[in-house]
Each structure stands twice: as structure tokens, then as C-alpha cells.
Write a structure and sequence with these properties.
two-stranded antiparallel ribbon
């Protein structure tokens, strides 16, 4: 959805899938999750307090 946004146009950077829970966007690794309920996310695993 980031790469081909219909409102803002195509993303002008690079996006690659590293593994099932990591995207690489412009060389920076971004962790992602499929959890719908924020209460079930282990935020500490992502570096959040």
C-alpha cells in the first residue's frame, strides 16, 4: 500500500521484504505485525516502552 498509494502517487524510494516481520524502506529495517489488537502486541520486542 505504501509503494502504490492512490492519493500520494508511487513511493519514490526502495521497499523490499526482508522476512515475514520486517520491511526495508530506503535501507532502514521496519518491524511489522499482523496483530489487530494493540493490547496483544509485545511492544518491548519492537523497542517501545
Amino acid at each position: 500500500m505504501l509503494k502504490y498509494d492512490s492519493t500520494h502517487g508511487p513511493f519514490k524510494g526502495t521497499i523490499t521484504v526482508v522476512d515475514e516481520s520486517t520491511l526495508e524502506i530506503n535501507g532502514k529495517h521496519i518491524k511489522v505485525t499482523t496483530q489487530r489488537d494493540p493490547a496483544t502486541i509485545h511492544w518491548g520486542d519492537f523497542g517501545a516502552d
